[in-house]
């Protein structure tokens, strides 16, 4: 039966059984099980004695039925008491009541969960499918299979079986609508077992068709038609016929979501005229919570205990009040100042239940709430009395069969049957709107339009927490929005009520008090971990937390439950984070000694991670490692800063070196160069091997940043630390070839590549061979030697495929495309570019994407599709400029000049030629030989169109003006360039 419940659990979906806190109840015989089933089906309601007699013996009871029923009831009470449920079965005229929660009866729970899943399907099919899967897991066999086989039980079994089949059909419909992959064999079995259910045949046809089995789908229709005709004498219905027609035509089957009626959603009883709603009246409008209110209302109407759980200041109370106003007939109880021992008394007092001296508070609550239409009870701020709340509700809910409770807490109550509804902070747009509305309320003025971006940034810094936003907006009476934002560095001094609000809860007067409230409720070990977790920046994985504290899993689970640590689940992985407000609070409480120890372990962990990644970034696991490093980029930066300032070994140099490849792939050229430069300067006495690796990576990044003299200096410094029999020597030759390629020294570049290939092949260093071949091919085609480039790539592409390096494969395809393009085969070039583009996009390698866009722009120019060419080139230009690749920036500007010239913008084209010339002069790189003919063709055409004097004047203007200003001034490229270049 699994975990022993705190109250009771009745199973009807299989053999009839009852389990209490002390274990399973001993039920003797089919008739006793039938009595349990009859009571459980109407759990919480009176079942008359006459009805129980009919339930057990049917239409012909024996003369001793009444006496025998008494005996069964007595034995059943003894069995329930022995199971820890002494008060579960009570006498109430004219019969008996099983006083358990409806959710404790698996059949009732199944019905409610299926109904709720159908409500959920309106907004989230995946969640609805998961709910149905969990609900169907409640079935452990045929329903009521060991009870007395009387007529009413047969009807109940048929009803439950129908519900189960309908839920199964819904689960399949949801899954197929989401294109999920399921076991078609299950559907084939169901259709065979229930051949008259046309919906199962429809689902089977769609599932087979989606699995690529069109013939089997058509055969399924023929089987269905044969069964319906032979057994029922009818033809398939119109929907099944339409599915057949769609499959026959090879088209997509029609949607599966016109589901049968989900049945009535449980509704609240009519509100008596003499029982008005009693809720606090919020003073401000609720912003950004419409869908959340709808979801809470739907859940409250379907379940009896719902807990809104979320971090301090996220708006749980406001959401509960808004939902209660929709549901109606609610009573609000603020527990923030209540102690555990007085919980029942406090609730009774809030409900105005006077102490009559004849009963305790619990009994008064039961008398008031155990009625046909009890109020929705809202228990606000349960976190500090969560154990007492759980204990009280464990008694109160079974005793009051129709009672529903909506609780708010920073942690779940952990009560069986509880539905936890997470309350997240506001999304950025709603958070900004709330701030703007509140500023208007406080000052009577609007936030100036030019400050709206700052408002969004401010609300992001405040984590979208309504309480923090309200406290910040209250400062608008004395401070401007920029002044409020500037003071967020000391948010706890800023975010406090400007005057004492006698009606506000104490822990809502200041942001610090709200967090004190949560911090005081956790134990010392949890507090220590929370303080330690503040050293993370932007989130972390479990292994990172365990590097700081070996007990992190258990402790962090508690912090997650208490809404102090947030969980992000993406791409199959789990990451954790602190809201910035919580992180700042925890960091304030971190002692100096704790900070030193935590940051040291933090840096050590991320050094190990970076070195492991560096060993895998040229493998088939490249994409997963790039994703992981991108997620931890803020932590890597923090570790780097810590090691540069506090490290006493070579860890900073090792970390900067390990991250160099990641900096290349992520476009962080200058950040990677800065880290390496600082570490190299700080560690002049580092071992030669460590300095050698750092110098090589620094030289490579300098090439990408088009700082060729710096790259050469670093490469020659590295050459002094190695020998020709080392892999590093060959790698440096390849770097020298790369510099020579971009500075127009093509023959020298090929010579360096040939030397490097000799060394790599002697050492049987296949990745090095691949790298050298690629560099040689690149230098050859840029220099106009297409045959040599082809020869290199003929060997390079199979090699990089065998090595499984995704980026190298994409680069080889890009180079082959360039060769095809300059050889005049534009169709082959386009196919190769498209293939390379897809591969670069898969690993999010922006430099590669920009290169391909550049080449596709040239293909479009050659085809005469000038506007399409301009779009590709503008996209490429934006990325190259953001990355700092000035060598390609110049080439793209020259190609873009030709695109503009063709569309009538000759003067702007000439200005762009001048701008490209300025870039080339700055980095010392000529127009590549392979592009020289196109450049001369563009120059000559402009000369004819503008005249020599105007052409030179425009080129001079482009040479002298800032490129950003030039691009922004042209209506054909300004707006699209601004958008593209702003992309991350």
UniProtKB/TrEMBL annotation:
Name recorded for this polypeptide: SARP family transcriptional regulator
Keywords: DNA-binding
Annotated ranges, domain OmpR/PhoB-type: 1-100
Family: Belongs to the AfsR/DnrI/RedD regulatory family.
SUPFAM superfamilies: C-terminal effector domain of the bipartite response regulators, P-loop containing nucleoside triphosphate hydrolases, TPR-like
DNA-binding region per UniProt: 1-100
Any GO MF annotation of the entry: ATP hydrolysis activity
Organism: Virgisporangium aurantiacum
Gene3D superfamilies named among the record's database cross-references: P-loop containing nucleotide triphosphate hydrolases, Tetratricopeptide repeat domain, Winged helix-like DNA-binding domain superfamily/Winged helix DNA-binding domain
InterPro entries, A to Z: AAA_22, BTAD, HTH_77, OmpR/PhoB-type_DNA-bd, P-loop_NTPase, Sig_transdc_resp-reg_C-effctor, TPR-like_helical_dom_sf, TPR_rpt
